[in-house]
Amino acid sequence: ALAHLLDEPKLNRTLTRLERNKLVSHTESADGYARSVNDPFEINLYALHPVICQNEFFTTLSGTEQLFEAAAGECWKRADAVYNKNRFSYAVELFTCAEALYAHLVQILNRTRLLNDYAAMLINKGAALRNLQRLTEALAEYDKAITILERLVQGEQQTHLANALAMAYMNKGNALHNLHQLTEALAEYDKAIAIRESLVQGEKQKHLANDLAMAYMNKGAALRSLQRLTEALTEYDKAIAIRERLVHLEHQSHLAKSLAMAYTNKGNALQSLQQLTEALEEYDKAIAIWEPLVNREQQTHLANDLATAYMNKGLLLEKLKQWESSLDSYEAAVQLRRLCFENLGMFWIAPDLLTTLRYRLVTLLNLQHWPAAAQDVLAVRRIASPFVESPAITEELKQSALIEMATTFRLVHALDAAQRDLLYAELGNDAESVRSFVESMLA
Asked: pTM for the whole thing?
C-alpha cells in the first residue's frame, strides 16, 4: 500500500534498499497477461517483513490513522485505474489491500465516517471479481457492502445514500444472474427498482432516471432468461421510454449507447417470440446509434457492441432466408471484431470473433461460395492456433477458442466428399495442411 504513495524514482530507490536489507518481500501479481505485455500498471506486490509488522513501533507511531487512510484511498484509486484497463486480477489484489486497510480503519480505529467509502470500494471489488467469473466471492463483497449501506440508509437515515444501496442490490442481482439463480436475482432487482422509483418518481430526482432504466433493463434480462418474454418486453419498454426522453428530448447524448443497448435487448426478446420483423426494426435502431459513435466519433471501445448488433441482425436475416443480406451483416461484424482483436488489444474477443466467422462460414457453405468459405476456414486456424498456445491467455478463454475452432472444423468434416473437394480446391497450397489439421482436431 505504501508503495503506491511514492513516485516511481523514489519508490525504486526505497524498495531496492529495503529488499537489500531483507526488510520487505515481494511477489508477482497473478495477472499473467499484464506481465506478458509488460503492462505499466502491473508491478510487484510488496509486503513488510513480519518482524517489522509485529514491532511495537507501529502502535506508538503518530499519525497512523492518516497513514492508513491515505494508503487505503490510494490503493482504491489504483485498483479502479487498472480495473478500467481490464486488468481484473491485479485490480482484485489492490482492492483486497484496500479492504484490509478500510476494515482496520472502521473496525479498529472507529473511523465510521469512512463506512460509505468502504462500501463503495467493496462494490468495486465485487465487480472485478465478477469479471473474473469468481461469482461466489463477488457475492460476498456485495453482501458486505449491502450490510453497511442498509445500516447507513435504514438505520441511520442517511437517505442520500439510498441510490448507492440500490446499486449494491443491482450488482448482487447481476452476480446471481450469472450464477443462474434467476429468482433470487429478480428479488434484488425489485429492491433496486423500489428505491429508484421512489427517488425518481416520488422525490423527483430526475438525474437518477437512467439508473432506474438500468434496473428495468436488468430485470428484463432476468425475465428473458426465465423465458418470461412478454414480461421482459414490458421492462425493456419502460427503460426505452426513459432513455428516448433523455436522449431525444433532454439531449443527453452520452446516453445514446445505453439506448442502443435497450433496443438490442428488446430485439432479442422479440426474436425469441418469433416476431422477426419487429426484432429487425429494433436491431436497425441500435445500429443507427452505434454506427456514428464508432465510425464518426471514433469511440472504438464500442466496436464490439456494434458487432453484436450486426451479428444479431445476421442471424435474424438467415431466419428470414435473406442470405445475401445476412452475409453483409456478418461481414460488418467480422471486420469490427477484427479491429477489436488485432488493433485495440481486446484479446478476450477472440472466441467471439471465431463465433462470427463460424456463422458466416455456415452461410457461405449453404450458398456454395467456396472461395470465401476457404478464406474463413484459414482465418479460423490463423486466429485460434496462436491464441490457444499463448501462455498469457487464461485457460477459460483458450477452452472457448478451442471449442469454436473444433465446431468450425466439424462443419468442414460434415460436408460430403464432393463439397469438401470443392472447398479444398480453393485452399490451394494450404489444402493438405488444413485437411491434416481438421483430421487431427477431430481425432
From this structure: 0.80
